[in-house]
Amino acid sequence: MIRGSILWSPGRLGFRSLLFSGVTALIYQMVWMRELALVFGASMFAISTLLTAFMGGLALGSDFFGRRADRYSNPLRIYGFLELGIGGYALLVPFLLSSLIPIYQYLHGLFHFSFYIFSLVRFVMAVLVLLLPTALMGGTLPVLARLYKNNAEVGKGVGLLYAFNTLGAVIGVLGAGFVLLPTLGLNKTVLLAAALNGAVGLLAIWRGKHRIIPVETSTERTPVSAPKHPQSPRRILLITFALSGFAAMVYEVVWTRILTLILGSTLYSFATMLATFLMGLAIGSFLFSFFLKRFSRPPSFAGPRSRGDRAVCFRGGISFSPTPRSLLQAS
Q1: pLDDT per residue over 60-96, tens digit each?
Q2: How far apart, in whole angstroms, are the C-alpha atoms of residue 158 and residue 137?
Q3: Burial of 312 by CB count in 10 Å (0-12 exposed, 13-18 middle, 19+ buried)?
Q4: Which of 5, 24, 42, 179 could form a disulfide with 193 if both were Cys (CB 3.0 to 4.6 A apart)?
Q5: What is the DSSP secondary structure assignment for residue 177, as one 8-state letter?
């Protein structure tokens, strides 16, 4: 039975909080995609820029806050302040991107001889604008994972946190792409997401007042003898994850391009691709968080999983190829 397990532990607020964090994060991603499309003109440049800024910011934030997570005696309060920072900065992003237009016009006069150099300059400036809020988003998961450090089922706890966060992302991308943006427009959609960030942040700060976790000092930690080659397996694992992430982002861009030929609208194509992609991540994270104990060496599972990914993605690309022509013939 699930009741009495980690889903109903004192840290259950973390699951709800990350669910709403995922909702707002993907609402912002859809909004920023629309705004960057106005800057770049070409939707593929906008999507590539957005994915670079979004995933790069998540990586930086996860690394920065992850290294410091053990120092936080009150992770819920830290998480609450992160949410307030995300919502506050997200309100400024439309103004910041629009303020870059005169700068783009000036730089066009300097780099008009090369479309690619000018696009690179626009890319760098757009990424700098979006890097801070995405870094704050990246800090939410490692901060809340601190709640489960001393839990016997830490792997399950972190896996479920990621699953709930990704499920919220699915809700956010579908809601923004198919409901909020077509009905409310850009500005009201951003206001709604920022209000949700504020509500979640204030609730976490309030609930965190009585949720103190002891912080170990350096003298309390038990020294562990270092293995003979401690960094080699870790380095290989990190490189494997990096290459896996690179392939995943390539798939996202390519699948969006393919779906644009089928659905027509870049907004709907990007929303459909992203929702499907994230739903798979959420299901996989949820399932493996429960089956993790059955793997004696979890890293060894990465090889067969990667080969399975390649086979399925290759087969999917072949299946997609005749689809646009079939739809044209059917119409």
Answers
A1: 999 999 888 788 888 889 999 999 999 999 999 999 9
A2: 16
A3: exposed
A4: 24
A5: I
Q: What is the pTM of this model?
A: 0.79
CB of 242 within 8 A of CB of 59?
no
Contact by Cβ (8 Å): 171, 38: no
Q: What's the token pair of residue 116? A: 């690619």
Burial class from Cβ neighbours inside 10 Å (0-12, 13-18, 19+) for residue 311 reads exposed
Q: How many other C-beta atoms lie within 10 A of the C-beta of residue 27?
A: 27
Say which amino acid occupies 249.
M
CA angle 183, 187, 189 (to 5 degrees): 55
Q: Which domains does the chain have, with CATH numbers?
A: 12-214+234-322 (1.20.1250)
Q: Could you tell me which residues come within 8 angstroms of residue 45 by beta carbon, excluding any fewer than 6 positions away?
A: 36, 119, 123
Contact 279, 170 (CB under 8 A): yes
Alpha helices in the chain (DSSP H): 12-40, 43-68, 75-99, 101-111, 115-145, 154-175, 181-207, 231-263, 266-291, 302-320, 323-330
CB 96 within 8 A of CB 129: yes
| Whole-angstrom distance, CA of residue 73 vs CA of residue 197 | 22
Give the Cα separation of 154 and 6 in Å (integer). Answer: 9
Tokens of 296: 């004696």
Residue type, 186: L
Cα torsion angle, 189, 253, 249, 120, sign: negative
The tokens describing 252, both together, are 């996202």
Count of other CB atoms within 10 angstroms of residue 92: 15
Per-state percent for the chain, helix, strand, coil, to nearest 5: 85, 0, 15
pLDDT (tens digit, 9 = 90+) per residue, 239-265?
Answer: 877 887 888 888 888 878 888 777 776
Find tokens 């979890």 and name the residue: 298
